[in-house]
């Protein structure tokens, strides 16, 4: 407990942070406190939603669907649900923070500061990753109270969780910069994030799909993130996790590069 | 000594609109400078370029020698800007917002004493732990000013800082800003309350349609432009042609004339006598900045 208290004090006072890094650290701290202040909405609600999916799908399909050998359907479902929540919440964190700040006008307080575009990006990205991981961890902790979930390759779990949340956090920054209104943001949520996450193999293996839809699934970046993450638990995947890792890493780097270009040019933020 | 703000041939185009037409302006360290002009004159565009929120089409601006585009990190470190719009972050209280704002500029817990001083100086001490949402409009405005000061910048830009602030709070605020100015902070103010600019500022720049139409010390502007104002209660009458160009305003039968010298009083009165117009009452005032403003930029 004293160690935890020390960590909390260091976090709140930032005494241990060099003045050089205080700017981005402060922005990260503010972004984390922002979602923590509304924790019921930003953490508890997505955990409950994921657990409801788990309850309903496992009740309906347990014993009727067998995806991997020796892996019950409920157990198969959990990593996919965890990853889906990680991705959705990482996106929601950066996108909602930016659009709210733009609509409310308080983004100006950050734009007037000497923060570089890279520092701005890193702070929003880290906050998105942290929220995604906190939600994912909470779902995992609740799930393992009821289900025996194996862990086959822990580093793969960590790698895909980090890269996936980073990729969606970055996409959230792009959406937040691009959108000027809440309904434009809803387009991203409802027509990109939701379909891609639901059609990524969270609830099934793509091998159960007809060949055409299997090919289509390979165009969905969410598929690689969820498949690779699931490999970390079961040691089995629809495609090689190394290929998934390469694709997800490349997608993240491309998106991060585009976002940094947008931020540097001041697109939609500075006239 | 390096100038606080150096503006060189700044142009800004928004499509076909030429919003700033080659503004040149130097503001020295320690000045209390007023930038005045009607809506759409280009004041906010100029301030937004200074703040790095808008990019100039051409020209350059520096803050204490640092270019706001090329050396934006150093320039912004030296600049505190109070935005015109009443914006706030609804998730945090006043003290948290000030700490965050100072933190963005690399200031840590060592800055807390200054944050306390700002809170006290702006009359926000008892609201320090109140969420921004729960503050009144005037309090929000003061919290905005406090945020701009949180990193103790040597150059402070106040864009319409007293809009919506009641008289008592306004006086508290100006007392604090004047104290900062005495301590050496450079203050640049835009306001619609011309009496504020007249009372507070040593120098005034007036803008009209993207151009700087006047730039001088407040005293010189007052002397140079308007001389005195003569108010005559005449009722609803048709004025003689000779004195119509001197008419500055008319309200409820009181006609106000701008005089450049005292000899013009006789001209006005003799013209009225000739036209058989009776003077019911007469008052002579010193000209104020509003007269200068109206004579330069015209009535809005």
In short:
Chain A is mainly alpha-helical and 271 residues long. Chain A contains 11 helices and no strands. Chain B is α/β, with parallel strands linked by helices and 300 residues long.
- CA(first)-CA(last) distance of chain A: 49 Å
Structural class determined from secondary elements of chain B: alpha/beta
By CATH reckoning, the class of the largest domain in chain B would read Alpha Beta
Molecular shape of chain B: globular
Q: Determine the number of helices of chain B (DSSP H or I, runs of at least 4 residues).
A: 10
What fraction of residues of chain A sit in β-strands? under 5%
Topology diagram in text:
The complex is a heterodimer of chains A (271) and B (300).
Chain A: H1 2-13, H2 19-37, H3 39-61, H4 73-104, H5 108-111, H6 117-143, H7 154-178, H8 182-198, H9 211-217, H10 221-234, H11 241-265
Chain B: E1 5-14, E2 17-27, E3 32-36, H1 43-51, E4 58-63, E5 66-67, H2 72-77, E6 79-82, H3 94-104, H4 112-121, H5 137-149, E7 155-159, H6 167-182, E8 186-190, H7 194-200, E9 203-208, E10 211-217, H8 218-225, E11 228-233, E12 247-251, E13 254-259, H9 263-274, E14 281-286, H10 289-297
Helix pairs in contact in B: 3-5, 8-10
């Amino acid at each position: 407990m004293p160690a935890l208290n020390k960590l909390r004090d260091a976090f709140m006072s930032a005494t241990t942070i060099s003045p050089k890094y205080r700017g981005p650290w402060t922005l990260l701290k503010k972004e984390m406190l922002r979602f923590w202040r509304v924790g019921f909405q930003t953490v508890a609600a997505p955990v409950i939603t994921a657990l409801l999916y788990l309850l309903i799908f496992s009740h309906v399909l347990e014993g009727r669907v067998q995806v991997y050998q020796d892996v019950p359907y409920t157990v198969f479902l959990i990593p996919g649900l965890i990853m889906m929540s990680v991705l959705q919440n990482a996106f929601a964190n950066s996108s909602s923070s930016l659009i709210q700040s733009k609509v409310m006008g308080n983004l100006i307080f950050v734009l007037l500061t000497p923060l570089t575009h890279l520092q701005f990006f890193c702070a929003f990205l880290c906050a998105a990753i942290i929220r995604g991981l906190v939600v994912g961890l909470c779902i995992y902790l609740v799930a393992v109270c009821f289900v025996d979930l194996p862990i086959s390759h822990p580093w793969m779990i960590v790698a895909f969780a980090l890269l996936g949340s980073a990729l969606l956090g970055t996409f959230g920054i792009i959406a937040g910069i691009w959108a000027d209104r809440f309904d434009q943001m809803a387009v991203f949520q409802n027509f990109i994030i939701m379909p891609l996450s639901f059609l990524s193999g969270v609830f099934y293996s793509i091998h159960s799909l007809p060949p055409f839809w299997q090919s289509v699934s390979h165009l969905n970046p969410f598929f690689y993130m969820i498949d690779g993450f699931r490999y970390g638990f079961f040691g089995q995947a629809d495609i090689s996790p190394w290929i998934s890792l390469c694709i997800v890493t490349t997608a993240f780097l491309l998106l991060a590069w585009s976002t940094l270009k947008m931020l540097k040019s001041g697109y939609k933020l500075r006239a | 000594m390096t100038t606080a703000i150096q503006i060189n041939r700044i142009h800004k185009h928004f499509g076909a609109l030429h919003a700033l037409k080659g503004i040149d302006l130097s503001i020295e360290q320690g000045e209390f400078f007023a930038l005045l002009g009607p809506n759409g004159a280009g004041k906010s565009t100029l301030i937004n370029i200074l703040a790095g929120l808008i990019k100039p089409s051409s020209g350059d601006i520096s803050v204490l020698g640092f270019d706001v585009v090329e050396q934006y990190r150093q320039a912004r470190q030296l600049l505190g800007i109070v935005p015109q719009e009443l914006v706030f972050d609804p998730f945090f209280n006043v003290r948290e917002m000030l700490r965050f704002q100072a933190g963005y500029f690399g200031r840590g817990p060592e800055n807390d004493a200054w944050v306390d001083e700002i809170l006290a100086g702006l009359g926000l001490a008892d609201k320090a732990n109140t969420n921004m949402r729960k503050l009144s409009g005037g309090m929000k405005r003061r919290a905005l000013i406090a945020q701009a000061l949180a990193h103790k910048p040597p150059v402070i830009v106040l864009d319409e800082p007293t809009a919506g602030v009641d008289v008592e709070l306004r006086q508290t605020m100006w007392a604090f800003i004047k104290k900062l100015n005495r301590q050496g902070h450079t203050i640049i103010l835009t306001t619609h309350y011309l009496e504020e600019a007249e009372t507070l500022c040593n120098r005034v720049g007036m803008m009209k349609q993207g151009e700087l139409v006047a730039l001088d010390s407040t005293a010189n502007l007052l002397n140079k432009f308007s001389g005195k104002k003569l108010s005559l209660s005449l009722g609803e009458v048709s004025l003689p042609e000779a004195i119509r160009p001197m008419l500055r305003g008319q309200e409820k039968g009181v006609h106000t004339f701008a005089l450049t010298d005292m000899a013009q009083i006789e001209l006005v009165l003799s013209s009225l006598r000739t036209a058989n117009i009776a003077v019911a009452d007469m008052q002579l005032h010193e000209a104020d900045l509003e007269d200068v403003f109206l004579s330069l930029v015209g009535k809005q």
